[in-house]
């Protein structure tokens, strides 16, 4: 009886995330903006299919709101990714660890590509549906 008269499940996503992606953080930031972190949790060559890069459209990802704008930030969300500067280290080795080709975030179409073991952080601006 209880299940018939009460809603016992709710999903804030318009569709299921790919099996290799985890929504790590969705936290209200300031006003109508939120902190969003997405994680690709498979390693390179761990799975024949799930270790591949995956692309998500942020615009229509959530049911209660539409993402209207997004800015990619560092993992700590303290700097815009475009202006952040990483430390450079000299190495004697000719080849360092595997660096996958990173696909830049497109603020125009709000699509993001995640490579294996990658976490990407965004400040998203939303509008209620």
From TrEMBL:
One GO MF term attached to the UniProt entry: carbohydrate binding
A GO CC term assigned to this protein in UniProt: lysosome
Entries under InterPro entries matching the protein: Gal_mutarotase_sf_dom, GH38_C, Glycosyl_Hydrlase_38
Name of this protein: Glycosyl hydrolases family 38 C-terminal domain-containing protein
Residues covered by the Glycosyl hydrolases family 38 C-terminal domain: 20-122
GO BP of this protein: carbohydrate metabolic process
